[in-house]
Structure formats: C-alpha cells, structure tokens
Task: inverse folding
C-alpha cells in the first residue's frame, strides 16, 4: 500500500535506502565523557584479547581454547574433555549472565564490550578519520581526485594489515603464542593449510570491517534480535526524553532543536528520538553529541541519557522486577553449583573399567584376579609421582602392564591393571573395593571398583 506521508515511522529498516540497498554509514567521530570512558574500556578489552593467551598463571595460559589437542585454559585452570560437565556449567552461567545483563541494561554489551564494535569504532573508524577526515563527505570537499585515490588505497592497505593482526590474535586464542609463532616463522610450503586459513580469515575480517560494518550488528547478529524479547519497560538503555524534547525545533517549546547531530554520530544510523530500536547498540555517542548541543543552546543536558521507558514516564528509576529476581536466583544457584564442582575437581583424572570380555581368573587355589583398563590424565602443570593402593583391604596385589609411576604435566597414560586378591577376602559373588590414587604420599582421589569372584 502506498504511503504518501513523508514522516512515516519505521516503515523500512533504518539502514536501507529507497532502492532497497544498504546505506553506508559514515559516522561523525564522537567526543565527550562517555566516549572517553568507552575508549578506556575498549583498549582494556583489546589488551585483554592480545595478552590473555600470552599471560600464564601457574604455568597455564590465562585463556586458551586448544580444540585440536582438546585442552581449554580458563583463567589459568586447565580443563580437558573429561571436564565436560564443568565446561557446560560455565557456558550455562555465561548465557544466564548475558540474559540477566540484557534484561537490566539492554544491549550495553554490544556498544562497550563486543569485539565487532570495539575493533570497528576504536580502530577502523579512526583509520577512516585519519585518511578521510572527521565528517560525512569531507574527503570529497577537501581533496582532489588524485589525492582521494591515494588516500583510499592507503586506507585499505592499513585495513588489510590490521585485519591480518586481528586474525593472528584470534588464532592465538586457539593455538597459543608458541604454536602461532611456529606457524608464522616456518616456510609457507611446510604449512600451506595454516597460511591459507590465516589469509582467508584475514580477508573475511577485512570485508567485515571495510564493507559490512554495522550490518553485522543489524542484520547478522542474533543478540540484537534476541533483546526484543528480553527487554521490558524497566530495562536501562540509551533513551531520548521525549517529554522534555517534544515538540522539536528551535522555535518550539521542546528542548530538542532537531539538529540531527545524534543521527550524524550514530554508528548504525539510528534516530534515537524514534524510541527503542534493536539497531541501537547503546554506544552513548548520541548522549555526548546531544549534551554538546544542549550546552551551546543553554539548555539542560542529558536530553538523551541512560534511562528506561518507565523512568521517563514516571520519573522513578528502578531495575527491580520479577524477571530480574528470577534470573538472579537462577544465576546464583548455577554459580554455587559451579563453585562446588570446581572445588571437587582433582588434578589427576582417573578412569578404571573392567576389561571387556573378562570376568574372574583363578590364579591358584587361594587367589583370584580381575583385569581392568586404567586411564590417567594429569590436568596440572607439574610432574605427578603416581601410585595405587587398596584402602579397605590390606592384602592385595596390583600389577600394571606399563609403568605409571611418573605422569608428566598434561600427559595421559593408559595401562592394564591385574588385581589379585585372596579368596578369603571376597564377600561373595561381587565385592566393592576402594582404590586410592596417590601423588607420592598425598591422596589425590579415591575410586570404587567392583571385583568379581568365582561362582560357588
């Protein structure tokens, strides 16, 4: 149906032009206290991304996701596939944290901590400001055609270099700095697949940050769509005080003079005055720009600010509601369960299982034996001097087919255990035994096995 109104409200996506093509947003560089705060936090995040795989705690990387070798280091604690339950709990806690955070603070993560926003706004856009100037179409007005071509080529060369650096940081989270340096320093002919992967990811990042840009946030990112069902009237987000601002215009009674600087500075091209929109990433650029304008026209600041629809309507600012309490309770329970699970986690993971197809073997008239397969994984970064002892039975002979007395840091050993017991110690057809696993004289863990006796 044809709409003749020139003031149609959101009858099409904000970053789509009249022909249906995506608009290229060339945002004005923000300035102000919120932008400074975001800059400091962004550089903290960038430094964390760079140094988290490099910094080591107790000999383990601060963060590492070595999928190939199935090792994961979180804040210096090494996890293995045997810790799947703990890893699942960590992921569940992270998801609930994101949901709770979104319910209370909206899409604040997107504007302040998301790597896509941090790299785009704090690195790539600043490169663009350096080469093209700090406003829309400024390069077309200031430079001649030859100069614009040279500047464009230079800008994209820098984009490619930065994309290559980001790719190496990304890969380092999965390989560690030592393995990454080995890949970089080795000839391409020795690691063609690795270099092709690195080149492909670098080109992908270049395409994202040079061309796609805000479309990642508005079209591809599921989190922006998700917040539509998580937010309510009490959720805190960047919001325009329409009670103060309307009606707009320099000659009207509202504080908004309709200068549209809040749109010029927005990285996704949102007009925040149209209310809450999923394209808004809560980056606060419009807050700073509006405060600058309000100061110039001698009007109170914070016409755009962090607030909620409920706060604008009632003047009462509260984040307390049923969903907040419910998510907080679930999160607290998950954190307690996670803490208990991690505290009970042992440094050596032991698995003892009966060898398939075997039962009880009669060695002589007085003794019988059972055969088990034993797997050990050293989840610490220290050498372990391993020994096994029967805890509740004094007489018993444990024989291993391979030497398991020393277990290197991060190593795994498999062996076969033959356990011999006197018939007089058996309590019938089946007897439960408790085996202690020791590091020197320190008890690491206990393991209960089932010993099958002879049928009477």
Result:
């Amino acid at each position: 149906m044809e709409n003749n109104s020139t003031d149609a409200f959101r009858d099409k996506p904000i970053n789509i032009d009249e022909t249906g093509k995506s608009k290229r947003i060339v945002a004005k560089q923000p300035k102000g206290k919120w932008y400074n705060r975001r800059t400091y936090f962004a550089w903290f995040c960038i430094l964390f991304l760079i140094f988290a795989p490099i910094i080591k705690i107790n000999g383990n990387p601060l963060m590492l996701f070595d999928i190939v070798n199935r090792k994961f280091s979180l804040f210096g604690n090494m996890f293995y596939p045997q810790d799947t339950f703990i890893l699942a709990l960590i992921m569940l806690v992270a998801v609930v944290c994101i949901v709770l955070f979104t319910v209370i603070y909206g899409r604040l993560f997107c504007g302040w901590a998301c790597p896509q926003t941090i790299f785009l706004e704090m690195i790539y856009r600043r490169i663009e400001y350096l080469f093209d100037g700090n406003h829309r179409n400024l390069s077309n007005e200031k430079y001649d055609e030859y100069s614009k071509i040279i500047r464009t080529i230079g800008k994209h060369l820098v984009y490619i270099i930065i994309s290559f650096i980001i790719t190496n940081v990304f890969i380092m989270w999965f390989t560690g700095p030592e393995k990454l340096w080995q890949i970089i320093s080795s000839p391409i002919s020795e690691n063609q697949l690795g270099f092709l992967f690195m080149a492909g990811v670098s080109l992908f990042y270049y395409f994202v940050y040079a061309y796609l840009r805000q479309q990642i946030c508005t079209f591809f990112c599921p989190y922006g769509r998700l917040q539509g069902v998580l937010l309510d009237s009490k959720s805190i987000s960047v919001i325009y005080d329409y009670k103060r601002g309307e009606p707009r215009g320099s000659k009207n009674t509202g504080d908004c003079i309709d200068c549209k600087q809040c749109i010029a500075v927005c990285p996704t091209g949102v007009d925040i005055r149209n209310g809450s929109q999923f394209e808004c990433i809560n980056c606060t650029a419009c807050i700073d720009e509006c405060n600058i304008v309000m100061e110039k026209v001698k009007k109170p600041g914070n016409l755009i600010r962090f607030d909620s629809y409920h706060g604008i309507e009632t003047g009462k600012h509260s984040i307390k509601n049923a969903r907040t309490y419910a998510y907080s309770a679930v999160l607290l329970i998950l954190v307690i369960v996670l803490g208990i699970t991690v505290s009970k986690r042992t440094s050596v993971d032991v698995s003892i299982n009966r060898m398939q197809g075997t039962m009880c073997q009669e060695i002589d008239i007085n003794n019988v034996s059972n055969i088990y397969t034993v797997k050990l994984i050293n989840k610490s970064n220290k050498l372990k001097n391993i020994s096994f002892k029967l805890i509740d039975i004094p007489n018993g002979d444990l024989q291993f087919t391979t030497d398991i007395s020393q277990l290197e840091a991060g190593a795994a050993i498999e062996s076969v255990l033959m356990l011999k017991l006197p018939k007089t110690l058996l309590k019938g057809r089946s007897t439960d035994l408790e085996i202690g696993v020791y590091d020197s004289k320190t008890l690491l863990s206990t393991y209960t096995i089932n010993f099958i006796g002879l049928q009477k």
Q: What stands out?
A: The first strand starts at residue 56 and ends at 57. Residues 17 and 353 are 66 Å apart (CA to CA). The chain has two domains: 12-51+106-314, 348-452.
